[in-house]
Write a structure and sequence with these properties.
Helices cover 43% and strands 14% of the residues. The protein is of the alpha/beta class and 278 residues long.
């Protein structure tokens, strides 16, 4: 069966699990070969476990099951040299990179005045600087080829303020600024650059004890069933969270824009949250 991305190669960061895994599989289902990376290690200031090396290997296995080629590397998006080597290896092995999905991200929380330097630096480092370093590594190759489709993960938190998430919100607002600026710089090179802004997604970033405690502070040891109505109440669409596959459909949509009609845009996947925005 012919896919819309047959013959193309997609780089997906944060590919160990969650949205990254979903995006990789969705792009592979459309015919793309996949290059994966994930830091695959915990971060002291992030209050839940990160993806593991085993998670990254499982994503690679699932991609290979689709019949597409795949390489994966343990690389932290904050590592300029590591990202540069990953891109060089991908081009050497596959001959090209057509698509870049800068998806790697973390979340943490704290009152504005209680966010430590380390919490701030890690959040900005992964969620904003990591996006910058990913795009900086891949864009020269795309310019040389005269083609590229770039999608960066922001958040509905990158479109509005959220209590207890100042460092996260700042990083995600920054991603939108990066996308709009880069889009203007490379529009003449056949490259589109867009941001996606999902609402809460059904993933390990959301489903962990510290996050449950943030949204149900009056309960001892809240569980998923306790937080579900709290999340539902935040959305115009009466659902608590998105499935990763719903976000992936938008990623595929942007990566199959053959005519480069969409660039510098922010695409809300917000369960209706944007209805209350100007």
């Amino acid at each position: 069966m012919t896919g819309r991305l047959d013959g193309q190669v997609a780089l997906v960061t944060g590919g160990g699990r969650g949205q990254g895994r979903s995006h990789a599989l969705a792009l592979a289902a459309e015919g793309a070969d996949i290059v994966l990376c994930d830091a695959a290690k915990d971060i002291d200031t992030v209050p839940y476990p990160m993806a593991s090396i085993g998670d990254l290997a499982e994503t690679e296995r699932l991609v290979l099951e689709t019949g597409r080629r795949c390489i994966s590397r343990v690389v932290d998006v904050r590592d300029s040299e590591g990202m540069g080597r990953l891109v060089a290896d991908a081009v050497a092995d596959f001959g090209r990179i057509d698509i870049c999905v800068a998806n790697a991200g973390v979340c943490g929380f704290g009152k504005f005045w209680e966010i430590s330097d380390d919490m701030w630096d890690d959040m900005i480092g992964v969620d904003l600087t990591g996006v910058f370093k990913t795009l900086r590594a891949v864009v020269p190759h795309m310019i040389e080829r005269g083609y590229g489709r770039i999608v960066a993960t922001s958040s509905m938190g990158g479109r509005m303020g959220n209590p207890n998430l100042a460092h996260y919100v700042a990083a995600k607002f920054g991603v939108v600024g990066l996308v709009k600026t880069l889009a203007r710089e490379v529009a003449g090179n056949g490259i589109t650059v867009n941001a996606i802004c999902p609402a809460s997604v059904d993933s390990d970033m959301l489903h962990n004890a510290p996050m449950y405690g943030l949204f149900c502070p009056d309960l001892d040891n809240p569980v998923k069933e306790d937080v579900e109505p709290v999340y539902t109440a935040m959305n115009l669409v009466p659902r608590p969270w998105l499935q990763p596959e719903e976000v992936s459909r938008v990623v595929v949509f942007l990566c199959t824009d053959r005519d480069a009609a969409m660039t510098g845009e922010t695409f809300h996947i917000g369960l209706g949250a944007s209805a209350g925005m100007p």
